[in-house]
Amino acid sequence: MDERGAGAEAGWRGTFSVMLLQRYVAMIERDYAANVSSWFTFENGLVKKVYERRHESVEDGKIRFVHPEDADMVNSFHDPDTVRREYAGGLRQKALEYRRLADDGKVIYVRADMYIFEDEGGALKSQTYIEDITESKKARLAVSEARRAQRQLELKFVSLIKNNYIKIYEAVRERDSLAEYELSGDGLLSTRSLPLGWKRGAAELVARVAHPEDRAAYLAFLDADSIVREIEENGKHPFHIYRRSDGSGGWLWCRTTVRGYRDEDGDFHLIICVQDVDAELREREKAADELRRAYAEARRRAKELEGVGQMFSTIYRLDAALGRLECVHLSPEERELNPGGLPRRLEDILSDVHGEDREAAAFLLTAGKAESGKKAVRELDLRLKSARPGGYAWARMSLISLPEVEGHGAEAFVTMQDIHERKTREVELKTALETALNSARQANEAKTNFLSNMSHDIRTPMNAIIGLINIAETHLDEPERVRDCLKKISVSASHLLGIINDVLDMSRIESGKMTIAEEAVDLSELIHRLITIIQPQIKSKDQKLIVDTSSIRNESVISDNTRLMQIFLNILSNAAKFTPSGGTLEIRISQLPSARAGFGTYQFVFADNGIGMSRDFLSRLFMPFERAETGAARTEGTGLGMTITKSIVDMMGGTISCRSELGAGTTFTVTLDLRLQDENGCAYAPDEFAGLHALVVDDDEKTCENLSQLLEEAGMSCEWTLFGKEAVARAEMMHRRGKPFKLYLIDWLMPDMNGIETTRRIRRSVGGDAPIFILTAYDWSDIEEEAREAGVTAFLSKPLFRSNLYHTLRQASRGAGQGSETGGRAGETSRIAEGKRILLAEDNEINTEIAVELLSQAGAEVVPVRNGREAVEALAGSPEGYFDLVLMDIQMPVMNGYDAAGAIRSLGRRDAAELPIYAMTANVFDEDIRLAFEAGMDGHVGKPIDAGELYALLRERLK
């Protein structure tokens, strides 16, 4: 190509490049006008400007208007040699952020993006785009600074937690929320929301971590409204000191401090900080002890050095002739109490004496003149004006007369000795003695009244028993009349036995001989026995009994079965006695978390809407021999029931309290920490019922709610109603919708329609084989046949425990629900010992006759003997396995029951080691039962014999 052609081509290429550059610039201005401020190219080792919208920024190959501190960095970024090396190393694109100076001198942040490439001729080139990133940079810097500040604050907070607090919580009063601050593994701070919220969470926290003696005060302190008032109205940060569990069975003194603030939404935030102050308090107490010891030692040394003069607060020299006084000694205490100076005349000192003591004081001082020259000492205790509370203090005034001796004339001194504290103690002691004397008199009167009451209360049932026996003897040909007499004799005898037991229990408590046993207790069985015992009393007055046990998770505990029953029966029988006919009794049993590992805190609440008690009697409720005056018939009983109840509760380490108001009813609350047999509980729901739809029918709303909760915990969905008619309507409606109920729980006695009729109509309307359980607190034997015909699957006995319900559901799921919840009531007594042979050791003929009759009615063959030796000989002379059970009296001639049991166990026969031996004796105290077990016996049956208890024993051991 000639020069012209080459020039033409170069011109064409140049024109094309300019056109392309212009178009590219236009595109940049159109698309990037808001951000791109410059465009540079690198060519032939120099940086050249291609486009700049604001001002020149390249001069002699160097970037201009760069912040001085960033100039070296920017020029190094654009340095040709550096670019070549980077390109050779494979770099094709790089970026840099730096500061530039704008036209007005302000600093702006920019980003340079460089693209490196070779052109067609192999020349190395680059293109650099400059973008203004001031706003985004400032935003990033602000975020970074905020994060840094937040991190610093968080680190400071974490350090504060580590060094000062063991727990920090945050609560929002209006939201009822509660969160706990926690430290993660990397030392950062996080929060964990607690599901129960503030109100319930605070109560749960206190019950779990606080010492039992501190719980009430700590929970009262954590009242959110009180804390907010204290902070907002008084500007204080309230705090509370209490004992907190250290997690290993010990207790630490801790201080909880609460700070607070109100956010922009008006919600009040409470920051609860728990601080370990155990060492601080103990060190402070130690320092206080040391200070007290040092002070006592200083006082002791001071007294040794004070001398005789210090025995007196004031000593005067008396000039009886002139009637004047001269102070020769004044203690510092008296100097403070008499800043205006001491009296100088006898009249002045007498004016300070209490009016009742003034005449005696004047006589004493006047004697100083009469006895001048004689050695004499006269003393008088009187009251002097003082700055102490009350205006007067006790002092001992002494007149000391000294005869004339060589070099000294006769003198008289008047001394004052402060005896206020000693005299006050004497007065207090006298008052205490008078109070004790009055208390002793009252106690004697109470015991006299008690004996009088006992004479009346014991004679009343005895009179009934004797009179009814006479009536029965004269009507032997009238079986119904005799049966009625026997029934009333049984009631009177039970009442008499209760009176005797109360007196004996009180005697054992006062002598310290009562002990608390540790044995397996099934709360479900215990409460059912309680209801069975009290049911006749409640039924006779047509009273309603409501029992709530839904919150019990662990029904099996370790305690004293007998004493628990005694506590509950004392309270419940009183409730029934003092509640009018048609009234309502309630038992609410709750299981709360316990601070003791392996224990549960059980709260038993007994409430009634009876006649209540006056405030005056309430203060004497737990005192012995007290009986409320009801204003009607005379109150029966020993007046010892509640005293015994409180004593037993105290011995079990629990608490008992009572709220009552005349005409408004009474509520007793018993709280006991009971050791759990199984911390995980033993009641579990059958899987077969999970997801099923159930209907609960009961006229008590609380019972419906509790049963629904238990069913929902078993995985069911649940509805409930208070009326039988509505239950039938709901069953029909759900059946039409194709969503029939798969389980029914129906109360027997309801006001509009009873449970059997409700069942009959449901079966008639919707058919099906869905289990229907009847709930009742009464004996259902009379209605069982009718109920089965109506379609009832099984009966459930109230109160309904979780284990009873789940057990019955499991039976129903296996097709075993054709009986009651346990396969029938344990009420059948006939022939339960059929074919069994029982050895009876009893020396009393009447007791033998009674026992033989009761055992024979149960179908047993009875072999009676008169003492322990005969019992051993009878067993030794019989074939192995001949006897099935031994009932052994304890106090017998020749050989007592304990020795006889030991001798039987030592016979060396297989059946002697396995044969059930039970003590059947009037020795019914705890140590008697313990001795029976130690002698090798299997149990204990108390006298007088309770037929139900005896038959229960036969049913258990002879089955």
Describe this structure in words.
With 959 residues, this protein is an alpha+beta fold. The strands form seven sheets. Strands 19, 20, 21, 22, 23, 24 and 25 form a seven-stranded mixed β-sheet that branches. The chain has a six-stranded antiparallel β-sheet with strand order 10-9-8-13-12-11, sandwiched between helices. Strand 24 and strand 25 form a beta hairpin. The relative contact order is 0.03.
How confident overall, as mean pLDDT? 76
Strand content: 15-25%
The level of helicity is 40-55%
Total helical elements: 28
In the predicted model, the low-confidence regions spanning at least 5 consecutive residues are 1-39, 42-61, 304-309, 630-635, 816-829
Query: Quick one: overall form?
Result: flat
Question: Major beta sheet, specifics?
Answer: 7 strands, mixed
Task: Detail the topology: elements first, then pairings.
Blueprint: H1 3-32, E1 36-43, E2 46-52, E3 58-59, E4 62-63, H2 71-78, H3 80-88, E5 93-101, E6 107-118, E7 124-132, H4 134-164, E8 167-172, E9 177-183, E10 189-193, H5 197-209, H6 215-221, H7 224-234, E11 239-245, E12 251-262, E13 268-276, H8 278-306, E14 314-319, E15 324-330, H9 332-337, H10 346-351, H11 358-370, E16 376-385, E17 392-402, E18 411-418, H12 420-474, H13 479-511, E19 519-522, H14 523-540, E20 544-548, E21 556-559, H15 561-577, E22 584-592, E23 599-608, H16 615-618, H17 641-651, E24 655-661, E25 665-676, E26 693-697, H18 701-713, E27 717-721, H19 724-736, E28 743-747, H20 755-766, E29 772-776, H21 784-790, E30 794-797, H22 802-813, E31 837-841, H23 845-857, E32 861-865, H24 868-876, E33 885-888, H25 897-905, H26 910-914, E34 917-921, H27 926-934, E35 939-942, H28 947-957
Helix pairs in contact: 12-13, 13-17, 14-15, 15-17, 19-20, 20-21, 24-25
